[in-house]
Amino acid sequence: MTQSGQHAIDSRLRILVVVHGFPPDTWAGTEVYALELATALARRGHTLTIVARTPARDSEAEWNVARGTFRDLPVLRVARRIDNLGVRDTYLPAGAREVFERILDEERPDVVHVQHLLHLSVAWLDVLRERGIPSVITYNDYWVVCARVQMQRTDGRSCASNRGHGCIVCITGHRPALIPAAQRVLPLFEPVVRRLLGRMGRRRRLGRMVRNWIDTMDRHSEILERCGRADLGIAPSRFLRAKLLDSGYFDPARLEHSIYGMRVPSSIPAKNPRPAGVALRVGFIGSILTYKGVEVLVRAMQLLRERPIELVIHGDHRPREDEFHARVTEIALATRTHFAGRFDNARISEIHADLDVLVVPSTWYENSPLTIHEAFLHGTPVVTSDYGGMRENVRHEVDGLHFRVGDERSLADALDRLARDHELLTRLARGVPAVKSIEVDAVETEARYRKLLAARAASPDRQGPRSPSDRGASTP
């Protein structure tokens, strides 16, 4: 325990938040949630410092730490270059441990809350364990079990679990059809290649694909063993929690399910009324990416081009620069689809005021999409893929509708049904659940911190959960 740890049990806390990106560099879901939770904890009187990876400038040294602020939160931005990295450098790079040791020496936190470690280092969890600093990890996606994060192959098909030696096929961009063969054949060569690596040294010249193959094998256990030893894990969806438990590395008692809290505006404007006979107003909010299912949505709009349904896509739209954006734009021609481009998140209430329904058509499992909680906050029902955390968060026929993942006809049918049945749309809007506020989330999170600190004070030498081999479980 830190010297201030005992005092912190009944006082204000010094909290270090670790995340793989942070505004204004990036504004994705994990980064926004990390910002909102940290801000809410700071409002409760705690001292928060953010440690975030940031793109290294041309002349900037790798692992340089620049101190600044964002919205009154102290931020330590750790510079990293992430282009053309090998597999190992995305989760256990050289030089990471030393910089984290220095940060801990300077900040002296009572507890460290990890929101993401991509392009930082899972070795930081070793440092926390060695120093006796309680660690909390929120699992915002599937990165710990999948190097591609989404548990989705390059052909768009999902993987139910880590594919072992077959994962190297996805990582290197080869044809997914080769995955079963890789799972069968590569284990035969692994012992020989490992002996070769031992003689030459990991940093000596060796084929990149071979190095990545071995590092992919090591990645699974090296990440999960460390995460499994953390004091507490938080899964925002039951689906993700089940995936983590299936790995065999986690103690169920130390892996909680807790939904995201949302920042609730002081006032939410009423929805602008839609006169009878006017087109159903459908929205998509987010990044225009393949796995976000935008193409499925615009293809559904093709099927609905004769129906009174309008779609507005809110998200960065660059058809001249991005091949996928260009394809989606072409598919959307002759449909009632409008690309509104990027938007200031401060306008989110204004955007929802003009929506009858939000569509979340992702083709990957998702976790607990903030866009769904955001929609419910504004009284907007959701049509979503019947998949992963999306299916869990939207109750079919209660506060939204499900459609078959990746199936534009199924999505078109759901939207057409809403356009034809105004009473159904009204009923779904009335069924939208109350949303947990970020203030409630902060209270719950603080209680978890204090519980860990109290347990550490009562048993300072207490160790975290054992690895699967220690528990008699098999490592995948």
What would you say this structure looks like, in words?
The chain has 476 residues and is an alpha/beta fold. The chain folds into 2 domains: 5-155 and 216-261 and 441-469, Glycogen Phosphorylase B (Rossmann fold, 3-Layer(aba) Sandwich); 280-430, Rossmann fold (3-Layer(aba) Sandwich), CATH 3.40.50.2000. Helices cover 39% and strands 15% of the residues. The protein has 17 helices and 14 strands. The chain has helices spanning 5-8, 29-43, 96-107, 123-131, 167-171, 179-200, 208-228, 238-246, 294-303, 323-332, 348-353, 370-377, 388-393, 408-420, 422-430, 438-458, 468-471, and strands at residues 14-19, 47-55, 65-70, 73-80, 111-114, 135-138, 232-235, 255-257, 280-285, 309-314, 337-341, 357-360, 382-385, 400-403. The strands form 2 sheets. Strands 3-4-2-1-5-6-7-8 form an 8-stranded mixed sheet, with helices on both faces. Strands 11-10-9-12-13-14 form a 6-stranded parallel sheet, sandwiched between helices. Helix 8 links the parallel strand 7 and strand 8. Helix 2 (29-43) crosses helix 16 (438-458) and helix 9 crosses helix 14. The radius of gyration is 23 Å and the shape is globular. Residues 1-7 and 464-476 have low confidence and may be disordered.
- Enter the CATH topology name of the largest domain: Rossmann fold
Number of domains: 2
CATH hierarchy: architecture of the largest domain: 3-Layer(aba) Sandwich
Q: Order of strands side by side in the largest beta sheet?
A: 3-4-2-1-5-6-7-8
The pLDDT mean sits at: 88
Distance between the termini: 33 Å
Radius of gyration, in angstroms, nearest whole number: 23 Å
Number of helices: 17
- Could you name the CATH homologous superfamily of the largest domain? Glycogen Phosphorylase B
CATH class of the largest domain: Alpha Beta
Largest sheet: 8 strands, mixed
Strand content: 15-25%
Helix amount, in percent?
A: 25-40%
Structural class: alpha/beta
Overall geometric form: globular
Low-confidence runs of at least 5 consecutive residues: 1-7, 464-476
The total count of strands amounts to: 14
